[in-house]
Design goal:
The chain has 119 residues and is of the alpha+beta class. A 4-stranded mixed β-sheet has the order 2-1-3-4. The model has no long low-confidence stretch (mean pLDDT 86).
């Protein structure tokens, strides 16, 4: 499965820059990190930094010609899956077969991501 997210123009994909932190961007950055660590084919494209990705994809190109309201736009295996909002953790869990707890703990707790440093 290939999961692609085409996002509106923004300065960074994490939501950590700017005057306030966007928790939705932080959640999506975490989810994509977890999916990549587990071997899933996922990609996020920002209109400001990767406009060629929007132009190269005919489906995305047709969507944004009608307006940018459809962004973020999620494609699964080249087919439009969701427009105008990011996938929820439940939707991602259903698509991937992973438990929703792989992305976030209950009651808004942040997921714990383990990293190892090589000496």
């Amino acid at each position: 499965m290939k999961l692609e997210v085409f996002e509106p123009a923004m300065c960074c994909p994490t939501g950590l820059c700017g005057p306030s932190i966007d928790p939705e961007l932080t959640r999506i950055a975490t989810v994509h990190y977890v999916l990549k660590q587990r071997g899933f084919d996922v990609a996020r494209y920002n209109l400001a930094s990767e406009p060629n990705r929007f132009v190269e994809n005919k489906l995305v190109q047709a969507e944004i010609k009608q307006g940018l309201e459809s962004l973020p736009l999620t494609l699964v295996d080249g087919t439009i899956f969701k427009r105008g909002a990011y996938l929820t953790n439940d939707e991602i869990a259903e698509l991937t077969g992973l438990p929703v707890t792989a992305f976030a703990k209950q009651d808004g707790e942040k997921p714990k991501v383990r990293i190892t440093l090589k000496k």
